Amino acid sequence: MTATPPRNSPRLFDRGSWPEARRIGDILRKETIGGVLLLAGAVLALIWANSPWGDSYETLRGFTIGPASLHLDLSLATWAADGLLAIFFFVAGLELKREFVAGDLRDPRRAAVPIAAAVGGVLVPAVLYLAINVSADDGAVKGWAIPTATDIAFALAVLAVIGRCLPHAMRTFLLTLAVVDDLLAIVIIAVFYTSDLSVLPLLGALAPLAVFTVLVQRRVRAWWLLLPLAFATWTLMHASGIHATVAGVLLGFAVPVLRSRQAGGPDAGPGMAEHFEHRFRPISAGVAVPVFAFMSAGVAVGGPDGLGSALTDPVAVGILVGLIVGKPVGITAATWLVTRFTRAKMDSGFAWIDVFGLAVLAGIGFTVSLLIGELAFGVGSDRDDHVKVAVLTGSLGAALLATVILRLRNRTYRRIHEAENTDADRDDIPDVYQQSEPGRPENA
């Protein structure tokens, strides 16, 4: 008989609070639609790049637009990677701060599990990639970070399709893991993929960032003030040599989560971050990420230099192994270590196959993986094409394996899902979120 965990022990896949579950549900609906659009953009790019009109696709990607006086005469592909993805990382910054300030993960015991899982999901794929490419030539080791990223929109879209009856806590875990994963990715980009650092523009970026911070801390929402400051921060960050998406994360971190004292203080609930997230998440999921996918995923897979050549490249092999093997091993092992050496326990009704299924799903490394590949090997290079083939193949493989595992688990949770649906009472809050359990406070 399994011993009851201590009263204050955190539990893996804990149900959390009803407000948090409802908020996660709203996020999932937007990210699911974004995942479908992302997939559509990637498929359209692949079809176009492999059609008789493939040259016109490359011409479109290379079309230059922007003011040369500001060094912003960039190709459309660069605008998608540096500009549109800054919106994606702005939303990621908002979400991460929201989780740790006002979400269920403000409890360090709960936060430790997805953070440890994310770190394990970064370290193990990187180690496997380096092991495969350590003796390769032509700077292959530069791509060590490519298989470390998890694509939020793509992974959540797959989970929404294959796991309609899976508990909300599993979705919350995957979302939080992916957000922390994105933060680690942006740190990696800033530290390891900044070749030429210009100090003056970097210091200059701090000025509009500081003004932006002061304004949002004072709850100013005027777009005609905030957008020029955000653009100035992005422009100067781009000029400094650090990837401009870092500006998106910093701007997201600057936005306050809780309401001001005049509006009721911390107990009044979320504030500016929720407002910005509501405004920008649809733009991120519905425009920024799909357009980036369209601009980045087009690669010719036919002919002697296509799929066969790419998958024999050690770089591509390292990416495939990292995504399909490294991600699930790293996430599962890190989660097991947390339960083994801390007081964290698996919540009742969950099994390790649930953890492994989510870990396999986290091997879908699309958006940020393609971005890091371009930074590591250069846009349009042969290695860049091999990276695209490997990322697409590895992400597809991870999605298919996760589908098999989680569809089986979905059947197991079907009855629980139906029971929770029948538990909703007149206040629209499922009774399961209002019940006290031994060793667990009531969820309001």
TrEMBL record:
<dbReference type="GO" id="GO:0005886">
    <property type="term" value="C:plasma membrane"/>
</dbReference>
<keyword id="KW-1133">Transmembrane helix</keyword>
<keyword id="KW-0915">Sodium</keyword>
<keyword id="KW-0406">Ion transport</keyword>
<feature type="transmembrane region" description="Helical">
    <location>
        <begin position="32"/>
        <end position="50"/>
    </location>
</feature>
<dbReference type="Pfam" id="PF06965">
    <property type="entry name" value="Na_H_antiport_1"/>
</dbReference>
<feature type="transmembrane region" description="Helical">
    <location>
        <begin position="245"/>
        <end position="262"/>
    </location>
</feature>
<feature type="transmembrane region" description="Helical">
    <location>
        <begin position="223"/>
        <end position="239"/>
    </location>
</feature>
<feature type="region of interest" description="Disordered">
    <location>
        <begin position="423"/>
        <end position="444"/>
    </location>
</feature>
<protein>
    <recommendedName>
        <fullName>Na(+)/H(+) antiporter NhaA</fullName>
    </recommendedName>
</protein>
<dbReference type="GO" id="GO:0006885">
    <property type="term" value="P:regulation of pH"/>
</dbReference>
<keyword id="KW-0812">Transmembrane</keyword>
<feature type="transmembrane region" description="Helical">
    <location>
        <begin position="199"/>
        <end position="216"/>
    </location>
</feature>
<dbReference type="InterPro" id="IPR004670">
    <property type="entry name" value="NhaA"/>
</dbReference>
<keyword id="KW-0050">Antiport</keyword>
<feature type="transmembrane region" description="Helical">
    <location>
        <begin position="389"/>
        <end position="408"/>
    </location>
</feature>
<comment type="function">
    <text>Na(+)/H(+) antiporter that extrudes sodium in exchange for external protons.</text>
</comment>
<feature type="transmembrane region" description="Helical">
    <location>
        <begin position="111"/>
        <end position="132"/>
    </location>
</feature>
<dbReference type="InterPro" id="IPR023171">
    <property type="entry name" value="Na/H_antiporter_dom_sf"/>
</dbReference>
<keyword id="KW-0739">Sodium transport</keyword>
<keyword id="KW-0472">Membrane</keyword>
<comment type="similarity">
    <text>Belongs to the NhaA Na(+)/H(+) (TC 2.A.33) antiporter family.</text>
</comment>
<keyword id="KW-1003">Cell membrane</keyword>
<feature type="transmembrane region" description="Helical">
    <location>
        <begin position="173"/>
        <end position="193"/>
    </location>
</feature>
<keyword id="KW-0813">Transport</keyword>
<feature type="transmembrane region" description="Helical">
    <location>
        <begin position="144"/>
        <end position="166"/>
    </location>
</feature>
<feature type="transmembrane region" description="Helical">
    <location>
        <begin position="70"/>
        <end position="91"/>
    </location>
</feature>
<dbReference type="GO" id="GO:0015385">
    <property type="term" value="F:sodium:proton antiporter activity"/>
</dbReference>
<feature type="transmembrane region" description="Helical">
    <location>
        <begin position="315"/>
        <end position="338"/>
    </location>
</feature>
<feature type="transmembrane region" description="Helical">
    <location>
        <begin position="350"/>
        <end position="377"/>
    </location>
</feature>
<feature type="transmembrane region" description="Helical">
    <location>
        <begin position="283"/>
        <end position="303"/>
    </location>
</feature>
